[in-house]
Amino acid sequence: MTPDADVMEPQPMPYYQWLADTLGALGFSVAVLGFAIFVGACVVVARSRNAAVIAAYLALVPLPLILAVFAAAKVALDEIAVISDEHENAALLALGRSLGTGEVHIMCGVLAMLPAYLVTALGLFIRTVRANRAAIIER
Known about the structure:
Helix content: over 70%
Radius of gyration: 23 Å
Low-confidence stretches: none
Number of strands: 0
Distance between the termini: 92 Å
Mean pLDDT: 77
Strand content: under 5%
Largest sheet: none
Structural class: mainly alpha
């Protein structure tokens, strides 16, 4: 038996399973928050006749990204705590894993934020143009 025979090969994991394991509870809450803000943006843009209300809603749109940055920092700090206790190559592996996991959280936050931001920003632009056009026509 060779020394390499004791080392187990990592089993391939389906992408969706890896993503669910990587995101965890914080990442899932980022996705849910992003969806809720997107639905709210659609409602505000569809029902509001006042551009100021839509502009005020823009303040809520970055919340998924803020939560994702928090999750990425938490993951990185957890792994750095592990690295500080270990002094082997496993520590470098943990660092790489934490950086990759943190990037997934940030990507999820951006993807959760983008639809609501686009709906709100485009809705604000269209309402503002319509209001200005109506004011010009009335003159």
